[in-house]
Amino acid sequence: xxxxxxxxFCIIAHIDHGxxxxxxRLLHRTGTIATRDxxxxxxxxxxxxxxxxxxxxxxxxxxxxxxxxxxxxxxxxIDTPGHVDFAYEVSRSLSACEGALLIVDAAQGVEAxxxxxxxxxxxxxxxxxxIINKIDLPHANVALTKQQLEDILTIDSALAIPxxxxxxxxxxxxxxxxxxxxxxxxxxxxxxxxxxxxxxxxDTYKGVVTHVRVFNGEVRPGMQVxxxxxxxxxxxxxxxxxxxxPFTRDKLQTGETGYLTANIKSPSDVKxxxxxxxxxxxxxxxxxxKEIHPMVFSGIYPINTADYEHLKASMGxxxxxxxxxxxxxxxxxxxxxxxxxxxxxxxxMEIVQERLRREYNMDxxxxxxxxxxxxxLTDATRKEVxxxxxxxxxxxxxxxxxxxxxxxxxxxxxxxxxxxxLISEKRGAVDHTETLDARRVMLTAMVPLNEILIDFxxxxxxxTRGYGSMDYEQAGYQESDMVKLDMLVNGEPMDAFSCIxxxxxAEGRGRVLAEKLKEVIPRQxxxxxxxxxxxxxxxxxxxxxxxxxxxTAKCYGGDVTRKRxxxxxxxxxxxxxxxxxxxxxxxxxxxEVLKA
Length: 596
Description:
Layout: E1 6-13, H1 19-29, H2 47-52, E2 59-66, E3 72-79, H3 87-95, E4 99-105, H4 112-123, E5 127-133, H5 142-151, E6 161-162, H6 171-181, E7 194-203, E8 207-216, E9 218-219, E10 224-227, E11 233-242, E12 246-249, E13 252-253, E14 257-262, E15 275-278, E16 296-302, H7 308-321, E17 326-332, E18 336-343, H8 346-359, E19 364-366, E20 370-371, E21 373-377, E22 382-385, E23 397-412, H9 416-425, E24 429-435, E25 440-448, H10 456-463, E26 469-480, E27 482-489, E28 492-493, E29 499-502, H11 503-520, E30 528-534, E31 537-544, H12 560-580, H13 587-595
Parallel strand pairs: 1-3, 1-4, 4-5, 5-6
Antiparallel strand pairs: 2-3, 7-8, 7-15, 8-14, 9-13, 10-11, 10-15, 11-12, 11-14, 16-18, 16-19, 16-20, 17-18, 21-22, 21-23, 23-25, 23-26, 24-25, 27-28, 27-29, 27-30, 30-31
């Protein structure tokens, strides 16, 4: 199609503001999907996406729309995930577009992720069309939402389109605005093919299917192409677009979005954001490419050790579908054979674990999540540590730096004191606060990533009775007083419970773990000491008392010295037993503590 009649756009919004419903409605209105094939959340293919109402994988769709001026336009919608863990995937999708529909819920107003996504879209110089969705709700407040658009996002509210994706209100106005306001794609002026690979998935029959946006030139079957980052050459087998199922085309040309297949066997060969070019006359690389690095690490072990091979195969299949997930085999004295896994963030970790349980029927246990620390040693070498087991001895460490995140928390006015207390408890510092409207404020704070791993989001929700929202972005590294906390049982360190914590939090965490272990470790014939230690210093201690056999039962009278003699003899035996005794901790005990 002629470039002047192509429009590439995406939809950005906070979670649950109606992004997927609007894309369903656009597909229906343009006739891309017949009425009989319509279903809710059409672009969300996974059960998990439908259940949680979130988008995990991006889905591109090509629609043909006849505008009021009588011309037919090709509209390429690139549906993006809304969650911060997939921010790089969102940024690659945004760089494949010229415009964005920014959806704001008329009942909830501007939320934390709306602000973050808006900044991301502005940094890519996209034309933004604001849409106020859900105007049909009884408690919708369109006037206040328009006010927030002007005050918080500095967008002219006169340009906002009131709509209801569910009722089909305002859909024609949105389509006309896409045609009128979003500019057509421009060629980059390079001598040959230049296409951006913004996503990929694995097909059993075709191999890796790569989603591409062509910036320059054209790609057709039989052509030799080169992936600039990996430097590998492939022959294109098939090109096409989605509607939303894939259909083949003769070629994809400048400005168009679709997919290509070549004999690519592994998704790791196609890096997100890589440039595809003509192998004979290569073009320059498109800007913005970066390697995806995991931010959060956790050990995943099968509860039944016999399932190890099954878990290994399941992870291999899952990696085909999710190139950002990384794993490597590791062993633990307590939990047996398992894997050290890296994730983009907390939601990503939760989703991978949930998919292993559901799609592959795996019974798994995950260890306490940790982040990547930068350790500078006394000989000035730098080391990245994601597992407490690999942290060098204290005497060799010069400094430890931990990853920081810039956190945006939106909460009702009455909860501002609680929020500030929560942030300072998590070792964070509030940079500034902004008043959003008469009811809500936004706090911007710097918090260590390590501190928001477990319960931060849940506590914000419970403190604000569900009205609070948060978003975060990476903000580099900062030097901190981090220490390795070891748990010793009868003097033996237990690697499964080791963790890297801030010195001020070590004692509290050590106490909690020691108390929990005391509950789950079975009693022995001798007393078992449970200790939390930093290096050689014990900071918390508990004792599991011994079983005591009643050795004086056979004494039915006589002198008290007889009883004392027997008790002394028993005491000696216990001492000797303790010196050579090993404590066997059942796996159930480990699982109980890790769940806690």
